[in-house]
Each structure stands twice: as C-alpha cells, then as structure tokens.
Amino acid sequence: xxxxxxxxxxxxxxxxxxxxxxxxxxxxxxxxxxxxxxxxxxxxxxxxxxxxxxxxxxxxxxxxxxxxxxxxxxxxxxxxxxxxxxxxxxxxxxxxxxxxxxxxxxxxxxxxxxxxxxxxxxxxxxxxxxxxxxxxxxxxxxxxxxxxxxxxxxxxxxxxxxxxxxxxxxxxxxxxxxxxxxxxxxxxxxxxxxxxxxxxxxxxxxxxxxxxxxxxxxxxxxxxxxxxxxxxxxxxxxxxxxxxxxxxxxxxxxxxxxxxxxxxxxxxxxxxxxxxxxxxxxxxxxxxxxxxxxxxxxxxxxxxxxxxxxxxxxxxxxxxxxxxxxxxxxxxxxxxxxxxxxxxxxxxxxxxxxxxxxxxxxxxxxxxxxxxxxxxxxxxxxxxxxxxxxxxxxxxxxxxxxxxxxxxxxxxxxxxxxxxxxxxxxxxxxxxxxxxxxxxxx
Amino acid sequence: xxxxxxxxxxxxxxxxxxxxxxxxxxxxxxxxxxxxxxxxxxxxxxxxxxxxxxxxxxxxxxxxxxxxxxxxxxxxxxxxxxxxxxxxxxxxxxxxxxxxxxxxxxxxxxxxxxxxxxxxxxxxxxxxxxxxxxxxxxxxxxxxxxxxxxxxxxxxxxxxxxxxxxxxxxxxxxxxxx
Lengths: 442, 178
Prior knowledge:
A: alpha+beta, three-stranded antiparallel sheet, B: alpha/beta, five-stranded mixed sheet
C-alpha cells in the first residue's frame, strides 16, 4: 500500500479499509477513486443478519425484553425499554410515575457508560493522533482514569437497578421485578456529584480538539418530549417538520436492502438519509437540557443546529453532563413505588415504541395474539438508521482530503465513521471496515 | 457502627487470590470462563464472572494483589482443551500473553487491560492467566467436549488451591500446550 503518494495524483485508486477498529462490530469501507474523484463508495456490512425478528415469533411477548437485550452489550437497556414500551402500548398498561423515573435513571446509567467509552476510548484517539487509548493513556493518564471511573459509575447504576451491568435482569412489562430502596440509591450520589464535574471537564477537553471544517445539511430525527430531554418517551420529530407518534414511524421511514450490506439502510420516504443520535437530540431539544448542561454547551461553543458531525464528540460530553444532572435529580426525588410493577392482562394487539439509545432512536414494533404470543416484530436500531447517512457523509467529506496520503484518508474516513459511534453488532452481527487501494498507473 | 463484615473477612481482600472468569456463555467455547466460575461455585470456591469487555477487569482486580484469570483463547498451537498458563508480574509479561493469542473475542482484551493497568498504576502484583484453547465460538453452541473437560480439571485444581489458603501457588501441572 502506498504511504506517501497523494491519492488524487495517482490516477485510479481503491481505498479499502479492511477492519475499522474502535467500533462495535466489523464492517468494511470500500472507496474507488479515479482521476481524483470518488467513483464508488460502499460501507460494506458482510456479516450475516442476526434474525432476532424471526426467532421472536411464537415467543411470549414478555420474553422480548430479555431476548432483545442480547442484541447489544453496550446498550441492552435501550432494547429492553423500546420492547417494554411497545408491549405496554399494545396492552394499554399505565405505569407508576416512580417506575417511569427509575427507567429514566436506568437510561442515565447506560448513557454515562456508553458515552464515556466512546468519547475517551473510541473517538478521542482519532483527534489526538493516537492509534488507540493505550497509546493515548501515556500522555493523558488522568483523563483516561477519569474515563474509567465514569464508565464504572455508569455500570454501577446499571448494576444497582438491573442486578448486573450487562444484560440487566430487573426489567419487566409493567415495571420492574424488583425496585431499589431510597437507601440503595444513596451510595451513587457522591460518585454522581464527582461525575457531574468530570463531565463538564470532559466537555471542556473535547471542545479544544481540532475539528475538520465539514458541515452537512442533515435532516435530524429524534424523540421530543414537551418537558424533558428525551430518553424513553416522546414524539418522533425532525428538523424538517416531521412530528408523529411512534405508531406512525413506518408510514414515513423505510428500510431498504442494499447488496453490499446485510444491515438494512433506513431512509425517509422520498427524502433519503437522515441523522439520529446525540447531534439530532441536541439540535432538536437543546432548550430542554438542564441548566449546567446548557451552560456547558454554551461554554463549548455549541449552538443548535450543529451541523459538523465531528463536533458530536462535544455533544456526547454535554449529554454526559445532562445524564449526571438528571440522575442526581431523579435520586433526590425518588420514592419507591407502592408496587414494583403494574398488573395487566394480555390481549391481541400491536404496539410500537421508540426510545433514545445512546446512539440514537431505537424503534420496536410487536404484533401479539390473544394468548400473548408474538406474531411479528420489527426492530430498527440507530446504527441501521445512520448507515446510509454515514455513506453520504463520506461522499461529502472525502473529496476534501483526497490530496492527502492514503493513510491519512483512511484515518479520516474511520474518524468520520466513528462520529456516529456505529454499533454494527446491533445492526447485524459484527462490523468490519476495510480500506483498500490500488493504483492502475503502476 | 459495627462493620457489616467480621474483621477476618474484611482482611481477606488482597491476601487471597481473586479468581476472575471471562467470556460469553452463549458463544461456544468462549463460555469456558463462565463455566469455570460455575464449577468453582459448586466446589465452594468464590469466583467472579465478567461477561463484558476487559475494561471491567481493571475494576475487578483493583485492590487485589493476586489475581487468577480464566479465559478461552486461540493460539492455534495446541489442541482444543489445552490449558495455557501465563504468569504476569506487575503487568510485565502481558506482551508474551498477547503474542500467543491469535485473537480476542473481547473488544478490549486481557493483555490491553494489563497494559492500561500498568499505565494507570492499577495492576495486581501477581497474576496468572489460564487460557483454555478453544475449538470454536459459534453463537448458541455449548462447550466442546475437550473444553468442558479442561474446565472441570482446572476448576477442581483451583478449588483445591483456594481451600488450601491464601496465595497463588497455582496448579501449573495442569498447564499444557506451551
């Protein structure tokens, strides 16, 4: 592979990123260049689909909560929440307000764990010029220790509420199998106070990173709730006027199969790709962030709409501040519900719900028969919704850097892909990214 | 206020070797670690099971001077079920462990955990990694017969060591394939 010759001067070339590191899973990026222009660009997802929707058929609806949690080890609670809410909507279940608050606290833990991992361990090395966090830790030891402690706190919130950090076991239709006492939550408070400060420091740190000058005219899509920054409830809204209930999601959003990807590509009908995730949430809900998160965003120069996807690392840090603030508020106001879960009756019906996984909107639909068995289901993970958008970003971004050596193009392409913190494990099974280049002038 | 744990119990942290078993029970022989933890519990020995990435190792071993880690590995140089033994002192030796590995199914592996532990000054003084050579990592498959037998042998030996008292005088006679 060439190391010094600029890509644009080399005639025809192929860039093939064999393995995209620091993403969850495996995929491949294939770029074909000719005459300094991109001829073809594909984010290939060659791994087989996981077929969760198929093997949910015939299972009891309640089982979907623990089965779909297995789709992801980073955000299992998001899957549990979208599944639970969809089933509760199908069966007309109203949950206790304190159960709702606990679910929100649970979500804060997952965001803290996932965002800390992505900011420090997966994305920051790109900006700072390190191959990985181990290289980065030599110079940035206090920052890496901060990240480890943040991640540990996120995991601890998950453990306290869910019994274990990964694939928690407390969630059920109508509420929880077990809810914590006020005393159970108190040990989290001091750590959360530390984490709040650490999150502000994180935002200040990442705001100083060098950001490529690149903007796109995105259609941002996220949940929106009238009184709170979205986690587990809200309408599906977009920056171009969409405002709908989750039950109408499939009327507007399509999944398409493309030959080079076993993960489906989502598009908006007659409009194309769209953007879900922290940038979308922030741009559509900035005013609902609590005071310190808003102040931190201003201090870091963020003002909606942020259209540079590389600055999503700052938005994630602002969302860390939010998650810590919100967790402290929820713990301070928590009273155990009279019953951990609401009784219900199974009935035939269809329920749809969307919640905000760390990586963006996560949609579930279940059709259930009169015995409570699943007849059909649909799961649309955030990474699947972003895949076409990632390709579109690369089509827009790579022409800016085609004069650079192949190694730098590869580095920047991977960095651009990681703007979306893609979780190919969720979208299919693994993610590989492959960059390959050949020069037909040789 | 009286402490929740008797004095003797509180003192044990750091003296006894912590046993940590890594892996994914749903992924064929990657379940060697979880299976070993289960076997150890049946034999009355305490073991922690870590199903996630190896970042959690840093939390698990924090404050422990002596650690035993059980995981499935693929070196390609031994038959399935072979038990490899690696000694790592103060993090040194993790490179040797890394070099023997063909790959890790964990996004952030054990060798990286030792390296990061060295950098952040959070690494056990003494560690032994038992790597059980795996035959396959197919989703939904159980343990292969060879790995199942190796897990039982290793768990029995570790349980005997644990019952014998503090220390890390590990059953190195079990190790093979090096």
